[in-house]
Design goal:
3-stranded antiparallel sheet; two-stranded antiparallel sheet; alpha+beta; Phenylalanyl-tRNA Synthetase, Chain B, domain 1
Length: about 140
């Protein structure tokens, strides 16, 4: 798999990032810069082998999903200023862990997905047929 060297932050730390391609094998479109999302906090659902959670699925957050996530032990709506996390609100776009999205799907709590903003490595966990059912950016 092709890798790209990218700067992860302003501290000059280098990471090998997997090629930035979406589920259609096209260039990955940014998911969100407000709030800034992604494993690398670059606004995209980029990933690499260090991203154990595979933060690769770009979703539109819903209240239903935020409540589900909090119930599962991951409160995404409460700000955590010490980590620069503003907390999410319905309508925000966010790079979600692929396994958490699949878990939410199985519980009928999954938010809609932006396929052009979802990294192709999400397909290692979530079948394309399922993602298509939740596509927000297709007809």
């Amino acid at each position: 798999m092709e890798k790209n060297n990218r700067m992860a932050d302003n501290n000059s730390t280098q990471y090998d990032m997997d090629e930035s391609l979406n589920v259609f094998n096209e260039p990955l479109i940014p998911c969100s810069n407000d709030p800034v999302t992604g494993f690398f906090r670059d606004g995209c659902c980029n990933t690499n082998e260090e991203d154990v959670g595979s933060h690769t699925v770009c979703v539109e957050v819903t209240q239903k999903f935020l409540e589900y996530s909090r119930f599962k032990g991951n409160d995404l709506s409460t700000p955590v200023p010490e980590f620069g996390f503003p907390g999410l609100k319905p309508g925000d776009a966010w790079c979600l862990c692929a396994a958490r999205w699949l878990e939410a799907y199985e519980a009928d709590m999954a938010p809609r997905v932006f396929l052009q903003r979802t990294h192709k490595r999400a397909l290692e966990i979530v079948p394309m047929e399922i993602l298509n059912q939740y596509a927000k950016d297709l007809n």
